[in-house]
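Researcher: Structure prediction, please.
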Amino acid sequence: MSYTLVRRYTMRPTGSPEELERRRVRALALLKEGLLPVEVARRVGVDRRSVRRWKRAARRRGEAGVRAKPAPGRPPKLGPEHKRRLEALLLEGAQAAGFHTDLWTCPRVAELIDRRFGVSYHVDHIGRLLHDLDWSPQKPARRALERAVPVLYGATVLPQPICLRPATPLPHLLTPKTR
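Model: Predicted structure follows.
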């Protein structure tokens, strides 16, 4: 599976709510200087209709009409401090957390969060939580047991003695087959 970058045009502009608010306040300041909405839109980098909408909101509700609103939705169960502590625990490794192997899986991370922070997450949500922490899923590389490690990694190895014939001659090797 591979991922490709697809540029999509969405209704939501890019930037944090604070950055978007600064852009709206700057647009209002330019309008107060006497610039036309089309010129303000060009300078701020938005559509002229957005500038007119902001102007109307400021006229109706004042500066509060263009202020950033809090993001809707349920607040996260783990705050920023808990997420930092979780990442530190993940970096210590799964064995340090009491698991038999050093492989982190979503069920293991969910169990760790439940044990350490008393917060239960569904296993399917752990991937999103780890993505927010800039962790990505990794699939362990499959390696053949018979692989020649020195050859793969370019290491120099002293030549091993090679046995060209068996220690005791085998009967079928003594005489060639004749027909």
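Model: Confidence is low (pLDDT under 50) at residues 1-7, 158-167, 170-177.
Researcher: Thanks, that helps.
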